[in-house]
Amino acid sequence: SCYHSNKKQAIMDELIPRRTECTDASRISSLINSSTSSLFGRVHVLDVIEKANLAITLTNGDVQAHAALYDYPNISVVKPDEWEQWLTSNYDVSMATAMNSLFLHLFLASDVTNQVTAACEIFRTSFTALVSLQYVWLVAPLDVVLEPALQEIFTVVEAAGGTTPTYALYVTQRHQHFPMLYIRDARLAYCC
User: Fold this and answer.
1) Strands 135-141, 101-109: parallel, antiparallel or unpaired by DSSP?
2) Can you give the C-alpha Rg of the chain in angstroms?
3) Whole-number Å distance between alpha carbons of 182 and 168
4) How would DSSP label each residue in 44-80?
5) By Cβ atoms counted within 10 A, which residue in 25, 88, 155, 162 is the most buried?
6) Confidence of residue 6 (pLDDT cuts 50, 70, 90)
7) How many angstroms separate the CA atoms of 48 and 162, rounded?
């Protein structure tokens, strides 16, 4: 769970989330490692920053973590405007729409930072910044094992019946980062 604990809050007090700037590119590039490449492929950081719908960086004066979210999956077999049909025909998903979903195209965190806490903060900030955002999806090759921080935050989405997917699909949802707010209809007995 990504709800704040005192330990997580102490770490986050030192880190400030903000929109990523192009000047962050060289430091973000220095965070790329072999597991990043196996999950996200070859990445040109400046292109990722410029084209992302939302790019968030955690900083303490130096870049400690970064995530880039797009409005389509990070795989070439799906055209950006056809991802909804691909998602619903290959996975047991019916709630994803272009209005409530983004896809993780890059996540990096320094070894110094508690990576799980950094990821939680980045996704909490994403859900705060975009009020209609309900789901962040991650599409990964089947043979890739997610980094521990991403394993902690994302859950596996099952393939649709009768299909054999060529990619693994993961999701993190708004309610994992914020408590659900239930609103009930007001009744006359509540006033006066």
Assistant:
1) parallel
2) 18
3) 32
4) -HHHHHHH-SEEEEEESSSEEEEEEEESS-S-TTS-G
5) 25
6) very low
7) 35
When pLDDT is cut at 50, 70 and 90, the band that residue 12 belongs to is low
Nearest to 58 by CA among 114, 4, 105, 136: 114
81 CB-near residues (< 8 Å, 6+ apart): 72
Structure tokens of 139? 């599409």
pLDDT band at 165 (very low <50, low <70, confident <90, very high): confident
Query: CA nearest 75: which of 142, 123, 20?
Result: 142
Helix/strand/coil for 180: coil
Q: Kind of pairing, strands 101-109 and 16-19? A: unpaired
Spatial distance between the Cα atoms of 146 and 89, rounded to a whole number of angstroms: 24
- How many residues are given for the chain? 192
User: What's the whole-number average pLDDT of the chain?
Assistant: 88
Crossing angle between the packed helical segments 6-13 and 115-129, to the nearest 10 degrees: 80
pLDDT at 184: 75
In this model, does residue 111 exceed pLDDT 80?
no
